[in-house]
């Protein structure tokens, strides 16, 4: 077991990643960064879903220039994703970016690296080193023959070494691979030797369905080992879906304190109600809540309420009527037609009480 709390805390805007802080959820915009309106609109949707930090590509001068205006209209730290061009890094820093993702070993001449580091130091901006199995340095591919977890860790240490030589320590590191066992092994090995916060991700994980499963397998394994201070789920989907998946994964490990949980049964031959659509409706209803409420939706009252003892509130179906229950105890019977609306009222009440205390 590792302890994510042993990592160095690194400040990013108004957040701190690493140390004893919560695991931070982030995503990346799909818009052209230079299109300020579209980018801000996407970031605001991400914020509403629970995104705590967002990255934008800074691939040209227009994108770097847009940062200033985007920053004015959003409420979470903004990260610039930069490849190679140190001038774009400097422009992003000048325009108020909160963090830069750039690999110092790819910047080029030492003087250019020094300039970026100096600008970051002056404004207290951290750098994320993003190692990717698909783009390892040639000297490592020559040494290892092909991408391996050891090669990935060596790449991270190579870039870290450049920053440390310049007495720069506000570093966050990712070691992404789309191969799940490779990513797990790379992060596990990195956690042994790297004192900086680790940003978890299974890169190019796939579509909403397959990417969710792949990310859950990889990131879940790492979180269960105590590894990971921030994470991004990479999906070929609306980035809001990435946030929903990230919240569910963190919830599974008790690493998020403001997320609702739905408990629902798989159904069986005892079922007399349309449980799947009820469960989906309730899940949608509670998805935007920032309250750690547990809601249970069960097909019948035979085993259900007892099996969902930890639920704050729940329903169990039956022919013509259903049960409303709390912590496994039946509260009252409700006509089947009113089951969901009564459940929603109870949820609203619990949320009101929670928010008032
Ligand atoms: Fe079957 Fe009832 Fe259990 Fe659902 S709660 S799986 S309907 S026994």
Automatic annotation (TrEMBL):
Residues 262-348 form the IspG C-terminal domain. It comes from the Bacteria. InterPro entries: Dihydropteroate_synth-like_sf, IspG_bac, IspG_bac-typ, IspG_C, IspG_TIM, NO2/SO3_Rdtase_4Fe4S_sf. One of its GO terms (molecular function) is 4-hydroxy-3-methylbut-2-enyl-diphosphate synthase activity (flavodoxin). [4Fe-4S] cluster binds at residues 265, 268, 300, 307. Gene3D superfamilies: Dihydropteroate synthase-like (3.20.20.20), Sulfite Reductase Hemoprotein, domain 1 (3.30.413.10). Belongs to the IspG family. Converts 2C-methyl-D-erythritol 2,4-cyclodiphosphate (ME-2,4cPP) into 1-hydroxy-2-methyl-2-(E)-butenyl 4-diphosphate. The keyword Metal-binding applies. Pathway: Isoprenoid biosynthesis; isopentenyl diphosphate biosynthesis via DXP pathway; isopentenyl diphosphate from 1-deoxy-D-xylulose 5-phosphate: step 5/6. This is 4-hydroxy-3-methylbut-2-en-1-yl diphosphate synthase (flavodoxin). Its EC number is 1.17.7.3. The keyword Transmembrane helix does not apply. It is an enzyme of class 1 (oxidoreductase). Its cofactor is [4Fe-4S] cluster. Keywords: 4Fe-4S, Iron, Iron-sulfur, Isoprene biosynthesis, Metal-binding, Oxidoreductase. Binds 1 [4Fe-4S] cluster. It holds the Pfam family GcpE. GO terms for biological process: isopentenyl diphosphate biosynthetic process, methylerythritol 4-phosphate pathway; terpenoid biosynthetic process. Residues 7-246 form the IspG TIM-barrel domain. It catalyses: (2E)-4-hydroxy-3-methylbut-2-enyl diphosphate + oxidized [flavodoxin] + H2O + 2 H(+) = 2-C-methyl-D-erythritol 2,4-cyclic diphosphate + reduced [flavodoxin].
């Amino acid at each position: 077991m590792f302890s994510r709390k042993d990592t160095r805390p690194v400040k990013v805007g108004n957040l701190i990643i690493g140390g004893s802080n919560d695991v931070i959820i982030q995503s990346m915009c799909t818009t052209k960064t230079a299109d300020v309106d579209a980018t801000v609109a996407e970031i605001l949707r991400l914020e509403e879903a629970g995104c705590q930090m967002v990255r934008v590509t800074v691939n040209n001068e227009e994108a770097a220039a847009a940062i200033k205006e985007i920053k004015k209209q959003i409420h979470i730290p903004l990260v610039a994703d930069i490849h190679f061009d140190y001038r774009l890094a400097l422009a992003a820093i000048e325009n108020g970016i909160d963090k830069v993702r750039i690999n110092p070993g790819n910047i080029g001449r030492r003087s250019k690296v020094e300039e970026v580091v100096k600008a970051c130091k002056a404004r207290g901006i951290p750098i994320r080193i993003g190692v990717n199995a698909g783009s390892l340095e040639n000297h490592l591919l020559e040494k290892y023959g092909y991408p391996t977890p050891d090669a990935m860790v060596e790449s991270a240490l190579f870039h870290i070494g450049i920053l440390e030589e310049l007495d720069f320590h506000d570093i966050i590191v990712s070691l992404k691979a789309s191969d799940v066992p490779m990513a797990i092994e790379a992060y596990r090995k990195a956690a042994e030797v790297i004192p900086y916060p680790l940003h978890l991700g299974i890169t190019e994980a796939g579509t909403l369905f397959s990417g969710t499963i792949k990310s859950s397998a990889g990131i879940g394994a790492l979180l269960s080992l105590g590894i990971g201070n921030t994470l991004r789920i990479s999906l070929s989907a609306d980035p809001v879906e990435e946030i929903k998946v990230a919240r569910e994964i963190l919830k599974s490990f008790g690493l998020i304190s403001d997320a609702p949980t739905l408990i629902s049964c798989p159904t069986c031959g005892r079922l007399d109600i349309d449980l799947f659509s009820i469960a989906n409706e309730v899940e949608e209803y509670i998805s935007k809540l920032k309250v750690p409420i547990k809601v249970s939706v069960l097909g019948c009252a035979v085993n259900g309420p007892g099996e969902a003892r930890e639920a704050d509130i729940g329903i169990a179906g039956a022919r013509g009527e259903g049960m409303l229950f709390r912590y496994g105890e039946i509260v009252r019977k409700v006509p089947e037609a009113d089951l969901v609306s009564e459940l929603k009222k109870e949820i609203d009440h619990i949320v009101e009480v929670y928010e008032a205390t």
